[in-house]
Amino acid sequence: MLGATDAASTGAEHVVKATAYDAILLASFGGPEGQDDVIPFLRNVTRGRGIPEERLEEVAHHYRAFGGVSPINDQNRELKAALEAELARRGIDLPVLWGNRNWNPYLRDALTEANARGFTRLIAIGTSAYSSYSSCRQYREDYAKALADTGLEGAIQIDKVRQFFDHPGFVEPFIEGVRDALAQISAAGIPLDQTHVLFSTHSIPSTDAAKSGPPERGFGAGGAYAAQHLAVAEVVIAAQEHAASWDLVYQSRSGPPSMPWLEPDVNDRITELAGEGTKAVVIVPLGFVSDHMEVKWDLDTEAMETSEKLGVMAIRVPTPGVHAAYVSGLVDLVLERRDGVPLDERPALTSLGPWYDVCRPGCCENVRLGFKPALAGVAP
Questions:
Q1: How many CB atoms lie within 10 A of CB 308?
Q2: How far apart are CA 244 and CA 254, in angstroms?
Q3: Cys staple from 173: which of 215, 254, 323, 324, with CB 3.0 to 4.6 Å?
Q4: Does the pLDDT value for residue 153 go beyond 80?
Q5: Residues 6 or more apart in contact with residue 187 via CB below 8 angstroms
Q6: What is the pTM for the complete model shown?
Q7: What span, in angstroms and rounded, lies between the C-alpha atoms of 100 and 338?
Q8: Do 359 and 117 form a contact (C-beta atoms < 8 A)?
Q9: Residue 312 in contact with residue 274, Cβ under 8 Å?
Q10: Element (H, E) at 195
Q11: Neighbours of 78 (CB within 10 A)
């Protein structure tokens, strides 16, 4: 296995041998921090995909509406500080390094810092909970590329925590948020049978969805990506005092009309529900760990405008952000690997988990790009 620690190098699905990590690598998407950054950032994101400049300008409008500043970098600064505080509270000496895939500070900067500080074994936390090319494998490819770009292959090893879609620390904030939103709607005099919960996540190409997760698991057309979201949504609804009707919806598609992406779109579904007599919707950003641009624009701007136009009350549930349960859960995920916690002691709220420590062969293939070198998984 490329770049793995000794404990993970066997390629076992779950690593139950303790590993003395030197530091945590907090890995995220990145975002522009000023108007001049917007187009260069979008070029980084879409490099190699042949996206025309006109399309980049369309997407740039979302960032320019917020002064050209994506909220994601400040959110990662807050998360890094929260992780450091939780580690200190528990007496755990693990520095937190932060690197992005698409903007400063880049992953290569974090690895250069790690090398300068003498760190050789890193455990990575990617700020994405689910399985797909863009939310897991692409991070793993970027770890490999950053090692190659810095010439640190062989000098630094990188493992990753498991995908944490059904870890209690990630799910609890959504359970609380839906409970609070339903209470607000009830207080406004709207009955539960006229209220609908919409669990929203980023749409991805249908081909990528079908290839998400290990091929041998046979998840069907939506792959592990859709199956994981549906399973978590069921947990969130089951935790409510009263059952509520709900759907999984998608947002933020960016591909050409000729390419199928996961549907239905959140705005289309709100429109349908309004026509069916729904008076209120609870919008749950289930696919997101923080309030970054897709949440602020696609949900807080577009979906809210759609709801208001149709006379539907809408409440958007908070993302985990720096919720105490989420931060504590991320530290727990690191300790699973540091301490080699047995599989039957690892928490998971759905029958799909605990997910794999080491990604399986062929997991989350990008059909258009093929397999590239990737860390923290069994080739290809």
A1: 11
A2: 31
A3: 323
A4: yes
A5: none
A6: 0.97
A7: 23
A8: no
A9: yes
A10: strand 195-202
A11: 14
Q: Which of 326, 354, 328 is nearest to 342 (CA)?
A: 354
316: helix, strand or coil: strand
Q: Which two tokens stand for residue 46?
A: 């879409």
Contacts of 240 (CB under 8 A, 6+ apart): 175, 178, 179, 182
- CB-count exposure of residue 48 (10 Å: 0-12, 13-18, 19+): exposed
Which H or E run includes 41? Answer: helix 38-46
Rounded-to-10 torsion of CA 38, 107, 139, 11: 180
Q: Are residues 238 and 259 in contact, defined by beta-carbon separation less than 8 angstroms?
A: no
CA gap 111, 126 in Å, rounded: 15
Q: In what order do the strands lie in the sheet with 313-316?
A: 245-251, 195-202, 280-284, 313-316
Burial of 149 (0-12, 13-18, 19+ CB in 10 A): middle
Q: How far is residue 107 from each of residues 112, 126, 147, 304, measured CA to CA in Å?
A: 9, 11, 9, 35
Place of tokens 């917020």: 66
Close Cβ partners of 280 (under 8 Å, ≥ 6 residues apart): 185, 188, 190, 194, 195, 196, 312, 313, 314, 315
Contact between 66 and 166 under an 8 Å Cβ cutoff? The reply is no
For residue range 234-288, list pLDDT tens digits in order.
999 999 999 999 999 999 998 778 899 999 999 999 999 999 999 999 999 999 9
Instruction: Quickly state the pLDDT bin for 21 (edges 50, 70, 90).
Output: very high
Are residues 111 and 146 in contact, defined by beta-carbon separation less than 8 angstroms? yes
